[in-house]
Structures are given as structure tokens and as C-alpha cells.
Amino acid sequence: MVAQPAEVLSPAKRRKQDTSCRETSPVLPATATAGWSSLPDDLVRRIADSFLATNDVDCYVDLRAVCRSWRAATDDPKTNTFDRRFHPRTWIVLDDVFQSDDRRILLNTATSRLLRKKLPLVLDYYVVATAGAFFVLADRIPPHAARVFNPLTGCMISFAVPVPAEVRVSFVGSCDGGSSLGLVLLDDSSCKIYTADPDNEGFASEDCQQGAYNFFRNAVVGGAYTHLNGSALAGVIAELCELVRFFHGDFVKSFSGGLPEDANDSRCFLVGLSRHMVLVIKTHGTLFVLKMNTELGKLEPVQSISNFAIFIGHRRCLPVDVDKFPGVEANCVYYTEHLGSSAHICKCNIKDRKVERLSEAAEFMKQDKQFVLMADRPCTIIQLLCSYTINMSDSQLAMQQMSQGAKESCSNSGDSDLDD
Questions:
Q1: 145 and 233 share a domain?
Q2: Is the pTM of this model over 0.85?
């Protein structure tokens, strides 16, 4: 009987079968890991400051949770709630399409980092609006006092004032770009602007004409309100009226915050970029980008916005740095074109005004009041950002009060029938 030749093993197989050659991960001694807690305070602060430089406040909070010495070396956001370093300045909250129960998806628009975060605390309140990534909340018990919640630090700022029922848009900050924290609420139904500091017992309210109100509202949702100042605002509005009149558009309609979702004729937003502010107008199928000179109240045509791209929808807009968002083209405006219950994404190059539709198939389909991404396709970053601009959640407080009013109306109607 002929003996079978022995199998010739490759060097890789020989190493795998030879237990004496198996590699093992080195085990670090306990003293090596314990040494991290003895890092010099200035080094710990430098690492912490690097997170704050990109507004990654959640990473800063995680760093402080490592050990007692690191907490002692860094400032506590919970005792510095008004410190702008700990505010979610560059973050946005992606709305109901991407939410489930107490989880929210947040996006850092400066770095493109997505954060899925569990926020059970928001379930204890009515969510009135989101201001960047701040949650504007209202107590569930009357008089529905206002609260501002920072999801990155877990800090809650209490206001003494009750939230007006019809509020849908808000921001947290200062109209003049100052460092003090205040709450600004906008009421679309009455064209009122409410402002309050945490210690105020009541809101200061201002009635606005619809055109001026809508102008300010779209400045808020465009992130440009910090660039405005009172002395220049009147001149900017006057110049804008002449511009819209030149385009044969209606000023109030162009700045309306309540355009129907299937309208494509007029949209106008003030957009805050890194060093300046621009005005984006889409009217009668043509798109214009103009630079705002807030000192002189003048509008100047813009041929380039450098490495930025702007996303506009019927609800709000958003500028992004394309270096942080692969797949997004610089010096372009992305917008949604609505066709009944569906919507397409279009792109317009600012320099040559060339417009192209990104896909022959519709990217969004309307369900109730929201536009949801079409199923069985992966979500691109462009679709994600466009979804943010065409969707905006209703105030839970307003919805609850509307529902309660409807029940009371039905109840009164039934009592009247019994009387008859």
C-alpha cells in the first residue's frame, strides 16, 4: 500500500496550527490605566477645549465623566448654563421622520457628525419647537411654563413665563448677538414676537406687520438672526421690497412662513454663512443669491459662496461647508420641487444658474403633514438635509389645546341639542 504524501502546509497555516506561535494581546498592568487619571490639568483642559472648538459638547461631557480629577480640571456645564461654549450652536435636530419614542438624531452641521441620543426627559413636557438643537418645552400642567433643554449637556433652563399656544418657531440667544441668553418665540397666527429672559415674569410682545414679521421669521429659520441689527433692518426691508417688486412677486407671499407644500413659485430666506449673510430668492423658476450689506442696507449680487452649499425648503433652510459633507457640491443651492404629493430634489449652480434634477424618481412622498423619504433606498446626506428643510414639527402644546378645544366644542354642541 502506497503511503499518502503528507500535506504541505503554507506558512500561514503552520502558524495557525502551532499553538506556540499564537499571538495574544498584551495585558496592560492596572498601573498603566490608572495613570490616565494623573494627567496634568493643563493637558486635560487642552483635550477638552479641542472638543469645544468643534462644538462637540457631548464628547466634552463624556470626557468629564472619566474620573474625578478630569472633572476637577474642567468647567462644569451644569453650573455654567449660560456659557456659550456649552450651547449646541452648530447642531440641528432632525425631525419626526427620523425620531422614535424618546430618541432623537442630531447633526453637527460644522463637522457632519451624526448623534443618535436617547432623551427620555422630553417626554415629560410638550415639545414646542427646536431652536438649533435646543428644545423649547412647555410644562404639561397649566400655565405651561417655558423650559429650554440642552440635549448635549442635559441642562434645563427654567423660565417663569408661560408659552403662548400658537408658537411654532423660536430661537435661544440674543437678537443683537450678545452673550446673554434669552428666549424668542414667534406666533405665525398673530404675527407677534415674544421675548423673555429666565427671570422675567411675562413675555415682552411686539405686534408686527406681516411682511416684517415674515422677514424676521425667515431670518430665524435661516440662522441669520445673529447678523441683524436694528439700525440696518429697516433699510434692508425697504431694499428687499423694491427687489421683490422688480421680480413681479408679492412681498408678503415671498416671505410667508406658511406657503402650501406644493407651491414652487416664491421662496426667500436670509442665510447666515461664516463671515457674511446672503439672501436666497427663488421666484417664478429663477433663483438669485444676494449679499446683504447690513451697515448700508444694500443688496449686492453674489457669484460665489466659496465652499458652502445652501439647502432651502418651504419650512426652513440650512447652509453647510461641503468640505465636511462629501457628495455635496460647493457654490450650489439645493431645493425641493413639489409635484402634488411627491417632491424632487433640484440643484442650481450659483455661478452659471444651471439647474438639474438629481433623480428622475421622486425622493419624497407626503404622508399627513410630513414628507418622508421613499422606501427601499439608502438615505444620502443630500436627502437628509433636504428633509430637514421641508419638514417642521407642530407644537405639541398647540396640538393638545386644539384637540381640547374641539372636544369642548363637541360637548357644548351636544348639550345644545339636548336643550332643544
A1: no
A2: no
